Amino acid sequence: MSHIQFRDLSVSYRRPKSDERFLAIDRISLDIERGSFVAVVGSSGCGKSTLLLAAAGLVSLASGRVVIDAAPVTGPGGHAAMVFQDASLLPWRSVLGNVRFGLEMRRWKRDDLTERALRHIRMVGLGDFADYHPHQLSGGMRQRVNIARALAVDPEVLLMDEPFGALDAQTREVMGNELLRIWERDRKTALFVTHDIEEAVFLADKVVVMGRDPGRIKDVVQVDLPRPRSPDMLDSETFVTIRRRLRESLAEDMASLRLVTEGV
Ligand SMILES: Nc1ncnc2c1ncn2[C@@H]1O[C@H](COP(=O)(O)OP(=O)(O)O)[C@@H](O)[C@H]1O
Ligand SMILES: [Mg+2]
């Protein structure tokens, strides 16, 4: 568990085929409390992935800093585990081999590897599939393997970039529930990007709305729903109120995008 602080963080990229740089995120300050689950929403291109990459130490910063548990992030290290939208599994390795791979990379002691990997495979409900290969699994199952691989290395923070983005609505809902069940057990500090407002509210303690051009924080909404969360909360007044506020925040962004396109 860990406390993440983003302080005046800016990240710039080079424009394609040009020396010119532009700000992908502009002076973002944000606190992710220890053991909390924070969701990030915002239209495409507003810098959500960049924010996660900065937390993982995978981009260089134009200014500002990222601090995890009082230590500045200076590069990729063992502190964070990432889960991406495309289950980035090794096709030639079994489910067990893939989850073991994460541990091998982090130099876990050999004797414990298989046992530890299997424990996490069972935790995501794939106990009977340890010997299967990725192509023999559904999209949802592959994403479970990805989550097991991330959690098995016992990272301080868990960074998830639209992990359920490629799944159908129903599988998505099941996976959201599963993720919460797992997360509620050891409460790793989690930063979760999604384009689904309901998913964000259902999962998170706090939802951050980002806006674009340049990428920045537009709104931060506290989600005061009790835990464990359950699907019946989707109809509660608190849920509906928060969802409306988030929709409105996001709609402003969409409106300005529309003006841009109409001007073309
Ligand atoms: N490696 C890169 N090089 C140049 N531009 C990039 C790179 N990665 C992202 N961008 C640009 O930075 C902006 C923010 O991207 P990103 O963080 O991926 O946004 P999001 O995840 O919210 O869609 C976008 O305009 C995107 O095109
Ligand atoms: Mg992204």
TrEMBL record:
<dbReference type="InterPro" id="IPR050166">
    <property type="entry name" value="ABC_transporter_ATP-bind"/>
</dbReference>
<dbReference type="GO" id="GO:0016887">
    <property type="term" value="F:ATP hydrolysis activity"/>
</dbReference>
<feature type="domain" description="ABC transporter">
    <location>
        <begin position="4"/>
        <end position="237"/>
    </location>
</feature>
<dbReference type="InterPro" id="IPR003439">
    <property type="entry name" value="ABC_transporter-like_ATP-bd"/>
</dbReference>
<dbReference type="Pfam" id="PF00005">
    <property type="entry name" value="ABC_tran"/>
</dbReference>
<keyword id="KW-0547">Nucleotide-binding</keyword>
<comment type="similarity">
    <text>Belongs to the ABC transporter superfamily.</text>
</comment>
<dbReference type="InterPro" id="IPR003593">
    <property type="entry name" value="AAA+_ATPase"/>
</dbReference>
<keyword id="KW-0813">Transport</keyword>
<dbReference type="InterPro" id="IPR027417">
    <property type="entry name" value="P-loop_NTPase"/>
</dbReference>
<dbReference type="GO" id="GO:0005524">
    <property type="term" value="F:ATP binding"/>
</dbReference>
<keyword id="KW-0067">ATP-binding</keyword>
<protein>
    <submittedName>
        <fullName>NitT/TauT family transport system ATP-binding protein</fullName>
    </submittedName>
</protein>
<dbReference type="InterPro" id="IPR017871">
    <property type="entry name" value="ABC_transporter-like_CS"/>
</dbReference>
